[in-house]
Amino acid sequence: MTVSERPSFVGGARGATEAVRLALAALAEPDVAAHSARFFQTGLGGYGEGDRFLGIRVPDLRALARAQRALPLEAAFHASEPSRLGPLNDR
Prior knowledge:
Low-confidence stretches: 1-10
Largest sheet: none
Mean pLDDT: 76
Number of strands: 0
Number of helices: 4
Helix content: 40-55%
Order of helices and strands: HHHH
Radius of gyration: 15 Å
Shape: elongated
Distance between the termini: 37 Å
């Protein structure tokens, strides 16, 4: 696919980033996130100290990634910044 064949994203990178953020929020499962936090020992002194989880299962995340394959690289980097996840990052 050439650059000119890429689909256009309403709102550019920001609009695409918001769409991904909303999709991640829809896939988030607090129970799975809590289990992952315990398993990876995210508490003080644990080897995963400070890590945060959304509770998204791998098959669901892969399906989302596949659906966003044409996402502009700029938007993908923008979406992956922890400060951009907002409330999702506080779980």
